[in-house]
Amino acid sequence: MSNVPAEAERLLESEPLMAHLGTCTEGRPHVAPVWYRYEDGIVEIVTTGRKLANIRSNPRVALSVQADDGGKTEWMVTLLGTATIVEDESETTAARRRINEKYGAEPGAYAENTLVRIEVGSTTSRTY
């Protein structure tokens, strides 16, 4: 059962927006854009590089999503949670396909990326 409020879930699932993933290791924060898919209190991303290395070191993450219209914020959702790296290739392929479909990319795009699932611990949301 998700602890994300229904309105925040609706917003997260509403359109293919860019999210910003915050990771931190050795006291140094790192924020980077990611594509995501949200369902039932779990966020899926596929990533590589520094984001993945930071998650391996410290699984506590933040994800921020915001919708704007002409530079004016319509809504924002920030999720804090714990990330788990999924090493299973079939699960990664399926998740990559779902995320790529959401954003209009080819199903096999970003084949080098690894699946990360984020279990949401807390949510902050606001509509304007």
Report on the structure:
With 128 residues, this protein is an alpha+beta fold. Helix content is 26%, strand content 48%. It has a 7-stranded antiparallel sheet with strand order 2-1-5-6-7-4-3.
TL;DR of this structure?
By secondary structure, this protein is an alpha+beta fold.
Task: Supply database-style keywords.
128 residues; alpha+beta; 3 helices
Break the fold down into its secondary structure elements and pairings.
Elements: H1 6-14, E1 19-25, E2 28-34, E3 37-39, E4 42-47, H2 49-57, E5 60-69, E6 72-86, H3 89-103, E7 114-127
Antiparallel strand pairs: 1-2, 1-5, 3-4, 4-7, 5-6, 6-7
Instruction: Label the structural class.
Output: alpha+beta
Helix count from the secondary structure assignment = 3
Helix content: 25-40%
Overall, the morphology is globular
